[in-house]
Task: inverse folding
């Protein structure tokens, strides 16, 4: 499965717990950007995330790794749009 939900959850947690003047952990931002890049460039990553979303919905879940499914759907739709535009 795509590591995007976990990377986003870690990033959201880092932002939520951030202190003024203290930089966010570089690893959380890097992992999130790498996961988004993979989502935007890999059909198999998109398919894995789509399957994870469907599985979560069948189970009645609203989140995957603490990230709302609605946000993941938006990112998936944007990734498909990027893939179509870039051909």
Result:
């Amino acid at each position: 499965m795509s590591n995007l939900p976990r990377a986003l959850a870690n990033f959201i947690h880092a932002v939520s717990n951030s202190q003024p003047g203290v930089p966010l952990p570089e690893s959380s931002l890097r992992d999130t950007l790498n996961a988004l890049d993979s989502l935007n460039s890999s059909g198999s990553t998109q398919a894995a995330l789509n399957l994870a979303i469907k599985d979560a919905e069948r189970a009645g879940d609203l989140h995957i790794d603490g990230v709302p499914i609605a946000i993941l759907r938006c990112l998936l739709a944007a990734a498909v749009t990027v893939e179509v535009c870039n051909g």
